[in-house]
Write a structure and sequence with these properties.
Layout: E1 2-7, H1 14-23, E2 28-30, H2 31-39, H3 46-52, E3 57-58, E4 61-62, H4 64-73, H5 75-98, E5 103-107, E6 122-127, H6 130-140, H7 145-154, H8 158-164, E7 167-170, H9 174-188
Parallel strand pairs: 1-5, 1-6, 2-5, 6-7
Antiparallel strand pairs: 3-4
Helix pairs in contact: 2-5, 4-5
């Protein structure tokens, strides 16, 4: 099995690029989707998060806004949250890998920050000009410039990610991203 770690900062086009790998028949494990499932109604993380952060669950699911407010205001809260969620995410990822073979993609926004890059055979970073990145995120709605800056402050700078990657996928156009995805698949399969 060849494990390709796919990463990139918010707004860089990682989800779109991961979908390109999936469309080509490559199994993709999505860390964000896993967390969403853990937080959803009946999700495995809901009871522990509710106990650790009273008032953050409603109707059997995590109230992401309430949890975000606590974690944003208290750096130690993020560590407590990660201690709950990371083992559950790791368990889900391990099950995915046990069920897979050939080339697989681990779509992980904080690949380097969590040290998961060490488990990958190759690393691909999605990247785009900072102005395009900012515009993409702010056009989505639901986030203002200050919230974006807070997220970016917790992420490794794009230039450092690119320097540590085996592949850089330019997502300024869909065509450039699609071409690089095809090149990577050809090289690794």
């Amino acid at each position: 099995m060849t494990i390709l770690g796919l990463t990139g900062s918010i707004g860089m086009g990682k989800s779109t690029t991961a979908a390109m790998f999936a469309e080509a028949g490559i199994p993709v494990w999505d860390a964000d989707a896993t967390v969403h499932n853990l937080y959803a109604e009946g999700g495995a993380a809901v009871p522990a998060i509710g106990a650790a952060f009273p008032g953050t669950t409603r109707a059997g699911a995590v109230d992401r806004d309430a949890l975000r407010a606590i974690v944003t205001a208290d750096a130690a809260a993020l560590d407590r949250l990660n201690a709950i969620v990371h083992p559950l995410v790791a368990e889900d990822r391990a099950a995915f890998l046990r069920a897979s073979s050939g080339l697989v993609v681990l779509d992980v926004p904080l690949l380097f920050e969590t040290g998961l890059d060490a488990a990958c055979n190759r690393i691909a970073v999605v990247s785009v000009d900072a102005a395009i990145q900012r515009a993409r995120v702010l056009e989505r709605g639901g986030m203002d410039a200050a919230q974006l800056d807070a997220i970016l402050a917790r992420q490794m700078p794009d230039a450092e990610k690119r320097a540590r990657a085996d592949y850089v996928i330019d997502t300024s156009t869909l065509a450039s991203a699609r071409d690089m995805v095809a090149t990577i698949i050809a090289e690794l399969t």
